[in-house]
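ok trying this again, last paste got cut off
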Amino acid sequence: MFEPRVALASLSGRSDAAWARAATEYVGAAFLGGIALDDRSREAARRLVARDREEFLPPDPLSFLDRELRKLTDEPLRPGFNVRSATVDPVGEAAAICADHDAILEVNAHCRQEELRAVGCGETLLRDTDRLAEYVWTAAATGADVSVKVRAEVPGVDLVETARAIEAAGADAIHVDAMDTEPAVRAVAEATDLFVVANNGVRDRESVREYLDYGADAVSVGRPSDDPRVLERVRAATVAWFDGR
């Protein structure tokens, strides 16, 4: 899906093309966004901004998505775009744009802010497997590669069953925020053929090896994604692990 097996994880309001371009020396992929696509998710994003959270709120989110991906056309990494929507149709529209750019469409089933959950976005999708699978099927039908960003430790959610459901719906990858449950990565990797990207606390050789030993196909860096020292350590550790294998 990408090489080296290091990705940048999206950070709302910060992860644009310039952010990705700054890390091309170290990573094989970058997930831009997240971006709210429809009216309800955009209203939720505006409420987040009102309490001092950074969010992308361009007048036209689909044009923004296309414009940012165009800026990365000649860069040596594979872009992706993390999207939020309370309705399914805009996900398909965003996926079609991603397909045109050989970019990955990433469905956000991860964010847990109350404003987003209230309109059916983010973590709410983990509790509604049928709706999540519909989002994945709609995106995959455009020809885009599809990832789903999820989190472990959500009460009442069987992450393995969720992974199986999205795989059956056409997903190619699952981006797992392991929280404090790193073995969740192994459970998903052993239960599916999805490309597993492990996230949370990826900083150095030890954290990289832990996730890859658990069966992850790649790792992603979140908050320190603009720190070249961290990215250099993570890339070196990832390349060394796969060379050794």
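PB: full thing came through this time. The radius of gyration is 16 Å.
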